[in-house]
Amino acid sequence: MSVAISVKNVIKKYDNGKITIIPGLSVDIKNGEFFTLLGPSGCGKTTLLRMIAGFNSIEEGNILFEDQVINDIPAHKRNIGMVFQNYAIFPHLTVQQNVEYGLKLRKLPKDEIQKKTAAIMKVVKIDNYKERLPEKLSGGQQQRVALARAIVIRPSVLLMDEPLSNLDAKLRVDMRTAIRDIQRDVGITTVYVTHDQEEALAISDRIAVMKEGVIQQVGKPRDIYTRPANGFVSSFIGHSNFFKGTIQLKSTEKCIMFKNGYSIPMDNLVDDVFDGQNVIISVRPEEFSIAESGLEARISKSTFLGQYINYEVTFQRDITMDESLTCEFVQDLGHTSKFYDIQEKVYLAPKRDKINVFTDDGEQSLIKGVIKFG
Ligand SMILES: Nc1ncnc2c1ncn2[C@@H]1O[C@H](COP(=O)(O)OP(=O)(O)OP(=O)(O)O)[C@@H](O)[C@H]1O
């Protein structure tokens, strides 16, 4: 797949250069892909999106569309479509007039405007209320109008900034599926900003996880979830339980040892680990099994969720990174009918090929290769 947008070492500063928000960021976005910028509030997602759109200056570096540097091309000449969280549709124009607005600006022939508008209203499923004014539409319908208006001009890039955040939970889920389907139908390269990790996982071809203006990892949703590049990504995407561990190279079997003596054999010895090295072991809630031996824990809370039971447990002091010492595990009721009582003792064994091992330093980087991915 060819590259549609190339961001090369861009730097963004505010307040006359006093505050650096993006300290030098590079990423390639491929043609036709649904690419999401994901990260906590204030990490610079909107700032980067606005640089791509042409609403923010670029202090250093380049942004290219295909092979063309667009740094100095004004927003209205970049051939982009934009959708924001507050819809930004004209209140005094009907649905149809809103959608055809961009085509009229471009002075297309009347019959072409009609044809294109009708086609896109059908794709976005707003053709039934084309004569209505926005005030008579629900939030979801208004967002569909905004989407239709953005894509009817056939932009080469569609930029969306938290487009679903004003909708209620159920509508958000429906609309994200609709957006995904429409984007696939139309095939526009899309850059999507959200701080909602579930939305990002559900909707994206690839995700860039950002923290403090720096991309921590770029990858497919599944890869980011199963092999997060560092502790931040592991805790930001989904839930992770963090345990203290050490690398043991002197015993007969090279292993990663938990603080209670439970150990997981290593698949490979990699260059950058040493005997006695402290590490952080991360385990997803659904990646524990109840076993004869493992990490001793007591059930402290159980929440019945239909197909699953979510248990909170308290581990022995000092084996987890978390001060509160409680972790979660999920029991799939499709595979068991056993229920655990509050205060009951269990042994939890992490599924060995699903754990991730991170360095115990400020970076908390994934130590690659010690555990093979199952
Ligand atoms: N015009 C501006 N002048 C000064 N600082 C700004 C300006 N715009 C944004 N910032 C700061 O830059 C940082 C990044 O803001 P940005 O809106 O890009 O974050 P975000 O990741 O999109 O967050 P959110 O999810 O809350 O929208 C924030 O600390 C914000 O206060």
From TrEMBL:
Keyword Methyltransferase (UniProt)? no
- Domain of life of the native organism: Bacteria
Q: Which UniProt keywords apply?
A: ATP-binding, Nucleotide-binding, Transport
Q: Where is the ABC transporter domain?
A: 5-237
GO molecular function annotation: ATP binding
Indicate yes or no for the key word Transport: yes
From the Swiss-Prot or TrEMBL record, give the protein name. ATP-binding cassette domain-containing protein
Give the originating organism. Paenibacillus planticolens
Q: What is the lineage of its organism?
A: Bacteria, Bacillati, Bacillota, Bacilli, Bacillales
